Amino acid sequence: xxxxxxxxxxxxxxxxxxxxxxxxxxxxxxxxxxxxxxxxxxxxxxxxxxxxxxxxxxxxxxxxxxxxxxxxxxxxxxxxxxxxxxxxxxxxxxxxxxxxxxxxxxxxxxx
Amino acid sequence: xxxxxxxxxxxxxxxxxxxxxxxxxxxxxxxxxxxxxxxxxxxxxxxxxxxxxxxxxxxxxxxxxxxxxxxxxxxxxxxxxxxxxxxxxxxxxxxxxxxxxxxxxxxxxxxx
Lengths: 111, 112
Hints:
The complex is a heterodimer of chains A (111) and B (112).
Chain A: E1 4-7, E2 10-13, E3 19-25, E4 31-38, E5 42-49, E6 56-57, E7 64-68, E8 74-78, E9 87-94, E10 101-102, E11 106-110
Parallel strand pairs in A: 2-11
Antiparallel strand pairs in A: 1-3, 3-8, 4-5, 4-9, 5-6, 7-8, 9-10, 9-11
Chain B: E1 4-6, E2 11-14, E3 19-25, E4 33-38, E5 45-50, E6 54-58, E7 61-66, E8 71-76, E9 85-92, E10 100-102, E11 106-111
Parallel strand pairs in B: 2-11
Antiparallel strand pairs in B: 1-3, 3-8, 4-5, 4-9, 6-7, 7-8, 9-10, 9-11
């Protein structure tokens, strides 16, 4: 039982490049989330998916897109990376009303 | 804009003391709160969940919720150096369970 897994763990991009962050969970959770964490800012919700086939914007969705590929997988795409997107990205999953379980994070640097 | 606010710290306490971490929130409709612990370079993990007024105890941890004052706190008794971490308070957005808004976190340092 791996919980929530994320790939890659580290990534360096040049401004304007694109990439997709992958997330998968094996806990049969309906809901999945993408957060970013910047120093002194706590966790901010980018997008979430309440169930397979649905996605919705969070606090800071600009510059990102998501895909809920199936119940297990939820990906985050940066179409044209900007230095302001340098951050640590966490994926999480939960059952409704239950705690959120977090993946190990992806450290992204955009130069 | 619904908010959850925490003092960023650092809060420094001696080993064996009680550490008191506080959080205020703006959404009167929020029904429940979560406390997460995050070690440096790691992901957040749940410490406590509280949804009713009053206290909830789990081992050395006690969460307190005061809905009238829109205030939630976490007490850590007999603090240990291993408790040194950032503690994040989170409450649901729009009174629901599926989305959480997190405070910026309070850094706790327990010194021997």
